[in-house]
Structures are given as structure tokens and as C-alpha cells.
Automatic annotation (TrEMBL):
Residues 162-240 form the CR-type domain. Residues 10-75 form the J domain. The keyword Chaperone applies. This is Chaperone protein DnaJ.
Length: 395
């Protein structure tokens, strides 16, 4: 895609956000629109597929801080961003002289000398559209593929131990029919005779020399005489693929895993984007988690805390026996070392066992009589001495 085509698009409008939207707002808007217009949810709906590609392209620019900065700077320089009406003198307004928007791209004189007040625009826009180096030089004009994000849900045990999962995706990818070159099978793109494959042409206007995207090949450097019937010459089509994703041991809920080069394919030979897999971990009915430590709450009886003893508690793999010291308070945490989460770097957490007194909802006659005898025997022990003293002072 040429420079003037990209700047002519309003990526903020595609995502339905303002130009000062935060990265989280942009991501939220993209994920909502991507779900609504996903080809799997709209089979046979070409309008939804077109919208899905548009929001993916917009997110690919606005989610990258460097690309977004350059895109915003270009929009600010050229006004509204509509082709042919960028606020320059003569851009179609009454009384203005003829002005070709393509003149501002490149803005360099032969030999590398910058000309006039437009000297820096060519370099800035060249970076935005993937063209670096001296004007007219053969360079990469491709566009890096957009990053893609998807979600997976795993259970608690898989998050602790790690897992390998198949992941099925339907997203823009390299066209399988033409292999991504955009040409009908059996044919190949040919080098543009106008620009010699550079994608740029130089011309002079008065005392200035300018370079602009080649109009014959639209800045690609190649001409496709017989476009691929599958992708229409774009080299990208929506396809379904299955990947194997390795979930590392100890992954946290809502953590993102990056798979480099597994996003949307790049255009014009540029690298593919990345795939981000967001992991959602289902809670466990017994265990909880605190960092690398596993947590569990174990009910105990009052005599077990007063007299002490041993209790057996489960771990994710087996069980462990812990000693309860005599006189242990309710809510105390016992630690079973090395029984927590083992992470990839070799660090191991512990199992934290919280003791919680279980209060019987109902006692039989024998237990009730025994408890009353205990109350009589322990009458001299006041569990609330500070409060009792305050009440005595106020009586």
C-alpha cells in the first residue's frame, strides 16, 4: 500500500475511538470489533470480513507506539487525512494554485541535499511506510503484519504444571493459492518498468526535486498482470490454521504469551506480526495461589489447636503431614516448603496451610455436657482480659 493511501485512512474511525484514546481503549475497541466481525462468527458475510481486515489493519498501526506516533504526526501535518485535502495551499481550495500531494513525499534533492522547508517530511513518512535510506534507493517498502491476540482457557492444574494445547485460529494469513505474491498460480509479478522496482520515482518542479510513490505500481515496485483469484492480488486471505501452543509452568491468570511471527503476514516481503495468547485460568475448588505459593484452608477442631497434634493435607501431587503446635491460634498459617509451584527458572514455592476452627452447628447431649464441664473448669481463664478491665472501670 502506498504512502498516500495509508495516510488517507482514518484508523481511529475504523476502531470507533478518539485520537487521544489510550492503548487499553484501543485494544478494547479492537477486540470487540474483531469478535463481532470475525469470519467464524459471520460465515459468508463479505462485509464483515472486509471490516475484520480493516480493524486488524488499524490495530496493527495504533497498537504500535512508534507507528502510531508517526501516523499521528503525519495526520497533524496534513489536516483531516482525506486524500487531496490536507490543508496545504492549492490543495483544491478556492484560489489555490495546483499542488500535487505526491510532491511532499521524499523532498530531497539529488545527492541527498534537503530542499526548502519540506526537507524532513520525506524521511519521516519514509519511516512510517517502511521506506528508509536515500530517496530513490531500492529499499524495503513492505508493511509489517499486524499483531493478533486470542484467548485460551485452562484449568488450575494445567497453569501450575504447564500444558501443550492446540489452538485453532481464523485470521488474515498468507494466501495459500499464490503463496503471498499476489499473482495467479503459474504467473509471477514483474518488475515495474517505470521505477525499476524501487517503488519511487523522482521528478523536478521548479528549483526542487521530489520523489513520490510510483503511480504505475502504487509504490510496490512490481506489477501484477494476473491477480490471484483468491486474494485479488493482495497476497493475504482469511484462513483457518491450527497451532500448538506451549503454556509454561506457573503461568498467571490473564498473562499474555507471545508467539513471534505467528500474527498476520507482512506485505511486500515485510516480516509477519506476532500472536499474543492471553491465558485465563479457571479457579480450583480447593487450592488458591499467591505468587509461586499454593494456598489451602484446612478446617480443624478446637482441641487440635489447644492440645496440638498432626494433620494431613493434600498437595497437587500427593499429601503432606504437618505438626500443629499446642496452643496454636485460629488462622495461623503453616508452611510446607517446596510443595508449591515449580517455575521454568527452577524456583519453587511453598504450600501455605491456613488453620480454621470448625464450629459444630449442633451438639448431641453428651458433647454438650462435656463442653459445659469444660466451661466450668476453665472459668478462671478470661479470654478477654483487656476488655474486662475496661468494663470494670466504667461500671
Amino acid at each position: 500500500m502506498s504512502a498516500r493511501e495509508w495516510i488517507g485512512k482514518d484508523f481511529y474511525r475504523e476502531l470507533g475511538v478518539s485520537s487521544d484514546a489510550t492503548a487499553d481503549e484501543i485494544k478494547k475497541a479492537y477486540r470487540k470489533l474483531a469478535r463481532e466481525n470475525h469470519p467464524d462468527a459471520n460465515p459468508g458475510n463479505t462485509e464483515a470480513e472486509t471490516k475484520f481486515k480493516a480493524v486488524s489493519e488499524a490495530y496493527g498501526v495504533l497498537s504500535d507506539p512508534a507507528k502510531r506516533k508517526e501516523y499521528d504526526e503525519a495526520r497533524q501535518m496534513f489536516g483531516s487525512g482525506n486524500p487531496g485535502g490536507f490543508g496545504f495551499p492549492g490543495a483544491g481550495g478556492p484560489g489555490g494554485s495546483s499542488f500535487d500531494f505526491g510532491d511532499i513525499f521524499g523532498a530531497g534533492q539529488p545527492g541527498g541535499t534537503q530542499a526548502g522547508g519540506l526537507g524532513g517530511l520525506g524521511d519521516m513518512l519514509g519511516n512510517l511506510f517502511g521506506r528508509r535510506g536515500a530517496p530513490g534507493a531500492t529499499a524495503s517498502r513492505g508493511q509489517r503484519g499486524a499483531d493478533v491476540e486470542t484467548d485460551v482457557r485452562i484449568d488450575f492444574t494445567e497453569a501450575v504444571r504447564g500444558a501443550t494445547l492446540p489452538l485453532r485460529l481464523s485470521s488474515p494469513g498468507e494466501c495459500a493459492t499464490c503463496g503471498g505474491n499476489g499473482a495467479r498460480p503459474g504467473t509471477s509479478p514483474r518488475t515495474c518498468p517505470t521505477c525499476g522496482g524501487a517503488g519511487l520515482v523522482n521528478r523536478s518542479q521548479g528549483a526542487f526535486a521530489f520523489s513520490e510513490p510510483c503511480r504505475d505500481c502504487r509504490g510496490r515496485g512490481a506489477i501484477i498482470d494476473n491477480p490471484c483469484p483468491e486474494c485479488g492480488g493482495d497476497g493475504v486471505s482469511t484462513r483457518t490454521r491450527t497451532l500448538t501452543v506451549r503454556i509454561p509452568a506457573g503461568v498467571d491468570d490473564n498473562q499474555r504469551i507471545r508467539l513471534a511471527g505467528q500474527g498476520e503476514p507482512g506485505r511486500g516481503g515485510a516480516p509477519a506480526g506476532d500472536l499474543y495468547v492471553r491465558v485465563h485460568v479457571a479457579p480450583h475448588p480447593v487450592f488458591g495461589r499467591s505468587g509461586n505459593d499454593l494456598t489451602i484452608t484446612v478446617p480443624v477442631s478446637y482441641p487440635e489447636l489447644v492440645l496440638g497434634g498432626t494433620i494431613t493435607v493434600p498437595t497437587l501431587d500427593s499429601k503432606v503431614t504437618l505438626k500443629v503446635p499446642a496452643g496454636t491460634g485460629n488462622g495461623r498459617v503453616l508452611r510446607a516448603r517446596g510443595k508449591g509451584i515449580v517455575k521454568r527458572d527452577g524456583t519453587t514455592g511453598d504450600l501455605l496451610v491456613t488453620l480454621q476452627v470448625a464450629i459444630p452447628a449442633k451438639l448431641d447431649d453428651r458433647a454438650k455436657e462435656a463442653l459445659e464441664r469444660y466451661v466450668e473448669a476453665a472459668a478462671r481463664h478470661d479470654p478477654r482480659p483487656e476488655i474486662t478491665e475496661m468494663l470494670r472501670d466504667r461500671s
